[in-house]
Design goal:
Layout: E1 19-25, E2 28-29, E3 33-35, H1 47-50, E4 54-56, E5 59-63, E6 69-72, H2 74-87, H3 95-108, E7 121-130, E8 143-152, E9 163-167, H4 185-189, H5 192-200, E10 205-209, E11 217-220, E12 223-229, E13 232-236, H6 245-256, E14 260-264, E15 276-281, E16 285-294, E17 299-302, H7 311-324, E18 335-338
Parallel strand pairs: 9-10, 9-16, 13-14
Antiparallel strand pairs: 1-2, 1-3, 1-8, 4-7, 5-6, 5-7, 6-18, 7-8, 10-11, 11-12, 12-13, 12-15, 15-16, 16-17
Helix pairs in contact: 2-3
Bound molecules: pyridoxal-5'-phosphate.
């Protein structure tokens, strides 16, 4: 245990001491159960295995400047998981139970919360799956809610940096009236081939356009997009993007910094007018975009000539990190302290 090198941790899986589980049966959720096993005993006809009844969440716990453990916007993850469950007809875990389970699993694995200043954090992964046997296409009658945690290293190993993205029109992540707004495994399966293709071409992720018209900006890989121009923070409005909690928070902080905020359709050509651009999500907070290559149109939208992030991206990044680490006042009630 003393052998964890916090500064060189990857974004991978490391076994921790405990996970939390809760079963839904006969129309109700049972009590939280603590497990030391990393495995599930699952029926081979469970709906999660055949029909994709699986939703998940991702959030982080941080060791603050005062030594306390802080969790960022836990109530938002609870709401989003409930929405994902509703979206694919699974039993919804009540927000109260979700929060109780997150606090408990973090507390029990406290020794895995990386120290302040390491840049590392404890990643929290809740998931909810259909477990009862079903052969016809129907929702399950039984569900399992699980949360495991694993320490993850700093996203930016060589410091806050920009990366390139690529537009690949021959792939869609989610349909306009499909399941893009839910955090479910199926959307990820649908994105793997395109993601690998982008990676093989030397990009960090696919820059998705709207599936119907390929006219507007949707998402950057598994992160939301924002562009900055004329002191305005602009982020797409779309029926197929996942509502990012990081993006929601950045909109509030951008306003606090005196910027205007717009959530609207963003035509792909408008990329040429942005002074800065970024991808945002829990993993990186902000991953500033160096450039977006449109291979079909033989065009390139460049936001950083020398690879350094823009000043506003950096300011927003530092602000959200400071709140997460307890260095800045939690004005908006975003932090839950693990007692
Ligand atoms: C999880 C996720 C995000 C980021 O959401 P956060 O709440 O900010 O972590 C963005 N897009 C997709 C597709 C996601 O799954």
């Amino acid at each position: 245990m003393n052998t964890i090198d916090w500064k060189n941790l990857a974004f991978g899986y490391i076994k921790t001491d405990y996970n939390i589980r809760c079963s839904y049966k006969d129309g109700k959720w049972g009590d939280l159960e603590v497990s030391e096993s990393e495995y599930l005993n699952l029926h081979m006809a469970a709906t999660c295995l055949h029909y994709g009844q699986e939703a998940f969440e991702g959030l982080k716990a941080f060791r603050g400047v005062d030594g306390k453990i802080r969790i960022f916007r836990l109530d938002e993850n609870a709401k989003r998981l409930a929405s994902s469950c509703k979206g694919i007809m699974m039993a919804e875990i009540p927000a109260q139970k979700f929060q109780e389970a997150v606090l408990k699993v973090v507390k029990m694995n406290e020794r895995f919360v990386p120290p302040y200043g390491s840049g590392a954090s404890l990643y929290i992964r809740p998931l909810l799956i259909g477990t009862s046997a079903q052969v016809g296409v129907k929702p399950a009658s039984e569900y399992e809610f699980i949360i495991f945690v694993t320490p993850v290293g700093p996203y930016f190993k060589g410091g806050f940096n920009t990366t390139p993205f690529v537009i690949l029109r021959e792939y869609d992540r989610a349909a306009p009236l499909g399941t893009g707004t839910y955090k479910i495994g199926g959307n990820y399966a649908a994105s793997l081939v395109a993601g690998q293709r982008a990676y093989d071409l030397g990009y960090s992720a696919v820059f998705y356009l709207d599936a119907k018209e390929k006219k507007y900006i949707d998402e950057c890989g598994a992160a939301n997009f924002f562009g900055i121009k004329n002191n305005t923070y602009i982020t797409p409005k779309s029926t197929s993007i996942l509502p990012s909690i990081t993006n929601k928070s950045l909109m509030v902080l951008a306003e606090e910094l005196g910027m205007k905020v717009e959530r609207r359709h963003i035509p792909v050509e408008e990329l040429a007018t942005f002074e800065e651009a970024g991808a945002c999500g829990t993993a990186a907070v902000i991953s500033p975009i160096q450039r977006i290559d449109d291979l079909d149109e033989n065009k390139s939208y460049v936001f950083s000539k020398d690879g350094t992030p823009g000043a506003i991206c950096e300011k927003l990044y530092n602000k959200i990190r400071a709140i997460q680490l307890g260095e800045e006042e939690d004005k908006y009630g975003w932090i839950t302290i693990v007692e």
